[in-house]
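for ur thesis appendix - Putative two-component response regulator. copy paste whatever u need, i formatted it the way the template wanted (i think)
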Amino acid sequence: MRIVIAEDDPLLREGLALLLRAESLDVVATAGAPDEALDAIDAHRPDVAIFDVRMPPTHTDEGIVAAVEARRRQHDLAVLVLSAYVEQTFATELLTGGVGGLGYLLKERVGRVEEFLDALRRVAAGGTAIDPEVITQLFTRSRQDTRLDRLSPRERDVLVLMAEGLGNNAIAERLVVTDSAVHKHIRSIFAKLGLSPTHRLDRRVAAVLHYLEDARRRA
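the 3d part is after this line
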């Protein structure tokens, strides 16, 4: 896996590079500014780019703008975005865009090495990886939806983990339940959200997007 890191904090940038190289991952370049990151991506054609949300010169959304531009230039590029805190508008736009190979993690998650590496590999494989804290906040804000109120506490737990990008086996391990129990909960979620087998979207995706889109409308 070839990786470019775009992070303006030199300590975090070099720390990430050391961590990834220790895992035998190929960090082909690091950058402290958006333009440098785009130049590195053009030069090295990495598999994954890790972007800080807030970068110079204004430290607002330069990292996101650069990430979008990087994907425009290299359509198969996976992007993992890091943020110091939950930015709900970006998180919902990220998920409701319906495109794989994207992730959004809080920077504190980097310290949990196995979780961070799992998220990175999931994104590189074309999946999504959304920080659990982001999902929790979005879920809390979307509870006014009456269909979501029909879900049991365990079904809510399952839906949150689905939104993080976990598969059924991983959900079962996280909740310490059987695979068959997870299947049962997911079938119930589909039924309560009115998602039939003929729904135009994959029902798993539709279930996640349902409450995330509601959260975006209420943001």
